[in-house]
Amino acid sequence: MRCRRCKKPAVVEVRRHNAAFCDSCFQAYVHAQVRKAVDGLGMFSCDERILVAVSGGKDSLALWDILISQGYRVDGLYLGLGVGEYSKRSQRACEAFASERRVNLRVYDTAIEEGYDVPRAAKGPRTPCSVCGLAKRHLFNRLALEGGYDVVATGHNLDDEAAVLLGNVLRWETGYLARQKPVLQSTHPGLARKVKPLYRVAERETAAYAVLRDIDYVVQECPLAVGNTQIELKHALDAIEETSPGTKHAFLFGFLERAAKAFEGEDAVELHACSRCDMPTGGALELCAYCRMRDSLTGSRGPSAEEERL
Amino acid sequence: MRNPDREVEVEGAGRVKDLLAKLGIPASTVLVIRDRALLTREDVLVEGDRVEVRPVISGGSGNS
Known about the structure:
The complex is a heterodimer of chains A (about 300) and B (about 60).
Chain A: E1 12-14, E2 19-21, H1 23-40, E3 49-54, H2 58-69, E4 73-80, H3 84-101, E5 105-109, H4 110-113, H5 118-121, H6 128-146, E6 151-153, H7 158-170, H8 174-179, E7 183-184, E8 193-195, H9 203-212, H10 229-243, H11 247-259, E9 272-273, E10 280-281, H12 289-298, H13 305-309
Parallel strand pairs in A: 3-4, 3-6, 4-5, 6-8
Antiparallel strand pairs in A: 1-2, 7-8, 9-10
Helix pairs in contact in A: 1-9, 2-9, 7-10, 7-11
Chain B: E1 14-15, H1 16-23, E2 30-34, E3 37-39, E4 44-45, E5 52-55
Antiparallel strand pairs in B: 1-4, 2-3, 2-5
């Protein structure tokens, strides 16, 4: 098998494009896809400060590596969620990455800073992935705003987005479909802009990129995520992709280019400030979902936003 | 690099795609690595080769 560009022996095959690449041409291909995403959708500019949410896995560390290589002002944020040895290993991977490249990493441990961890939280009514997702959405946003960053970047790849899209279509979650975009602009002073620069890069491609760049990422899946819905949806899409390469790409990009407009406004909600953390929240309740969850886990009521200001 | 799962011995040389077929693993869901180098489906394995078949799927939280 030969590289499509330079005809040297190939090391990575990209079946959805009916192509294969050598090491350096593959890295150039991945960088070009990210550039196309960032510049094409105006995700951020060179003078903006970017906070990349890193987990120690292949996608987020590959993204951090790419953005550093492309000269962006980017720091990392690792959330310690207390999932035993898995979290410790993930944190070490992020710290080693940052240390080798001499870039800034902030480690934020929810047990220390917020008074709960995910395994304990998952003993309540929420699943571990639901607790984790809620914590990440809230804390990435809050810590980005507190740190003066312009934008939060996450390592969601093409396969992540296709699986989420399939889940949302199967249940016709029109509100979620309206929000399924590679760029979520800030619509409120309390909401940071959120971007997914890897949405054009398939999961196998981010993994291959990480190997070629010698990034020592954590291969093991989160033990609490095994068998979750998103992984099952990925298996379903992979079964189709195996016999029909390009299906995932066509599904996701068909939605973004032709169908997403139909759902615009479906997520419209009046926002008010959470009386505890001051972050914007929708719905009739005084507290945001994150503060309600944290209160139920810690059994205590934290200071209100007004008390915090005094 | 780590993959904490199992080790298996497969009889007979052949191409990477033959190995994956024997193991029942879709090629689109893994990387096959020999001596820290990535292999394509068409690369040939010889008797005594040790390769890592590394899954690429990860997934977690969130609808949006």
